[in-house]
């Protein structure tokens, strides 16, 4: 270690600072502190700095540097990354660039499924008619005087002169739309009148109107269920009911389609498991099914369902979108078809005003407690716009006609039976297709036989479903099942031949496979209505048969 006495005298003991700098710095610091103290709460900061400097002088230095850096950072003008001097363009050059600019699509088009959009028919004109003019593929294809077998307006009562006059008068008095949801000035007197008419017509305590039929199930079931509740459903329910079960947060079980032995075994197993678990609270329990199934056209066995629901203490939920106006001597649906009381057998009934009744919207039938709870707990009722008044009064007028005269219902049932009889007893067709719908269904559904599907596409319903489920579970956004697409294109050829060579319009069932949670097969549906006659329908049958035979040859 060097002795301080040995340090040369050349080095000064201190470095002199000019007095001007010292005095200037002192004045600046004095006035800065004086001004800073005028800020409310400044004395807390000064005390903090004093204590901090006393404990750790280096910390004061670091904090001062950070303070200076932050001030410089926030006051400095940010520089754009990669910024270069932009050339000055004239107005003409700017206009040319704008004209040349092509925005990227929000969703990239899928070339593999563009054919679906090109095959969607668009009817020209309005009103319920069996002979229509249609176009496809943005007007590239046009067909005149086509016999329409795709309409769900089964009774065609909205074409009655008295009903048309009611619609015109209502538009003059009420306008063309409602101003909001039911609870926010959307409902008018005609809405409540229709609810009373529906309850009286179907023999229930109350009813509730909805603006859209597709969202009724997905709003009603979640309104009555929670986590821990139990739902037992048929494995062929429609997409709207599937969505409702997903939104319910309940534990969902499926039984084999219309198999009451499968349902009873499942209910018995759940009952035994519940006894062993000794739950602190009894869960709500529902059986979910449909009157006429949207995908297959089969009819639910209501008496057996009622027996099982009473035995195991379940509530019965039935979607009657395609059975109301179709089943029963007066079109009152599944309960009348089996000659039982709706109020004592079905706890919640969901129906549509857009099928046999011919307007728009949906409704729910049940007791008054069920209806009252929906008015405060159902999302679609609370937040969706009400039906237009003219649609509501039109529905009331149709119900009145159905109550006075059931001739349209009886004729529809006779035509439906004839149509099914022609298809089911044709030996040539039975080798190729399988009719799945019940003879009393106004929509005939047919699909390829399992043997035909396996021979042509080397696939089964189970293999298609497994592939679809795999893609859903692995979150594959580009959902595509080759076997499904090939079979859909094959069925579309039948539709095209019937349209191009026979001027008859039929349709594939519109299915978005990635949304489906249950197995199903591609199929074609044919609708009949009360405004047709046997001769027209039989001629259409011959056209469809010829198309099937030609494509499958």
TrEMBL record:
By what name is this protein known? serine C-palmitoyltransferase
Gene Ontology CC, one term: endoplasmic reticulum
Q: Which InterPro entries match?
A: Aminotransferase_I/II_large (IPR004839), AON_synthase_class-II (IPR050087), PyrdxlP-dep_Trfase (IPR015424), PyrdxlP-dep_Trfase_major (IPR015421), PyrdxlP-dep_Trfase_small (IPR015422)
Q: Which Gene3D superfamilies match?
A: Aspartate Aminotransferase, domain 1, Type I PLP-dependent aspartate aminotransferase-like (Major domain)
Q: Which domain of life is it from?
A: Eukaryota
Which UniProt keyword terms apply here? Acyltransferase, Lipid metabolism, Pyridoxal phosphate, Sphingolipid metabolism, Transferase
This chain is encoded by the gene named LCB1
Question: Which species expresses this protein natively?
Answer: Kluyveromyces marxianus (strain DMKU3-1042 / BCC 29191 / NBRC 104275)
Residue ranges of domain Aminotransferase class I/classII large in the record: 146-541
